[in-house]
Amino acid sequence: MDMELPFKQSYKTMLHVLTALGVYNVGHQKCTPLYQWGPGVRNHYVIHYVVAGKGYYLLGGQRYEIHAGEAFLIVPDTEITYHADEIDPWEYVWVGFAGADAQPILQCTPLSEKEPVLRLADGETFRKAIERIYEARGADFNHAVRMTGELYTALSLLMRDDPSHRAEDVATQYVQKAATYIAHHYAYPITVLDVASYVGIDRSHLYTVFKQVLGVSPKDYLTDFRIRKACTLLREPELSITAAANSVGFENNLYFSKVFRKRMGVTPSQYRQTMVAPPTYDPDNPCS
């Protein structure tokens, strides 16, 4: 293939079964002068790395001039446009991806919606990492797993080297993972120990990161999450209090009433009788 002529090679995956992180598309393109994508919106993240040439990127009303050796981030559900230079049109590699791990990983890099452009110290290594994603392409589950493995490697090359940033971002990542687990499993009788086991850290470490990031203990967070859900259910008059308790992970109705009263100042039945309209959010009130 003549690298001096415009070309495009790309692969779009149809198998999006990896919920933690999955590749949506990957490719390599040498653009024609004034080549443009957008205005438009993607439903997943995309990182472009410019191998040669230049162009510009429009995001949030700002224009970013981008040159060889720089990467730029596209975030989901945000209108963007990018445009190749007329005289020295860019050539880039890219990878599109999504999943529960995408945002926590990106938070450990300098890239964000507010800072969408990054000059890479070793862009050639990052380019080769994206090429390995392309080489792992395929339509079956085995290839999807291989592509995701190469994607993790590529994204790790973008992570900050500052230990203070790493510690802060890892703590946030732990809390986000715990919060996601709680949101999906609060209806079962899970404990803080179950949450810590899922996150992969011990209970005391989980307590430390929750206090650091949210200012509350994981036990209080879990309890308040359940009580908020219970408040919503109690606004449905046809649902019994016992059913509401069971639906938010309390197997003992008396214990549920005790916890609810401690948090809300009234019993579940009193709340149901006096509640007129859903309250606005108040961080000190679990039912807001």
Plain-language structure description:
- The chain has 288 residues and is an alpha+beta fold.
- 41% of the residues lie in helices and 21% in strands.
- It has helices at 102-106, 123-135, 141-156, 163-185, 192-199, 203-213, 218-234, 241-247, 253-264, 268-274, and strands spanning 7-12, 22-30, 36-40, 45-52, 54-59, 62-67, 70-74, 80-84, 91-98, 117-119.
- Strands 1-2-9-4-7-10 form a six-stranded antiparallel sheet, with helices on one face. A four-stranded antiparallel sheet has the order 3-8-5-6, with no helix packed on it.
- A hairpin with a 2-residue loop joins strand 5 and strand 6.
- Helix 2 runs antiparallel to helix 3 and helix 4 (163-185) packs across helix 6.
- The N and C termini lie far apart (61 Å).
- 31% of the residues are buried.
What are the key terms here?
2 domains; six-stranded antiparallel β-sheet; 288 residues; 10 strands; Arc Repressor Mutant, subunit A; Jelly Rolls; four-stranded antiparallel β-sheet; alpha+beta
In short:
By secondary structure, this protein is of the alpha+beta class. It has helices at 102-106, 123-135, 141-156, 163-185, 192-199, 203-213, 218-234, 241-247, 253-264, 268-274; strands spanning 7-12, 22-30, 36-40, 45-52, 54-59, 62-67, 70-74, 80-84, 91-98, 117-119. The relative contact order is 0.10.
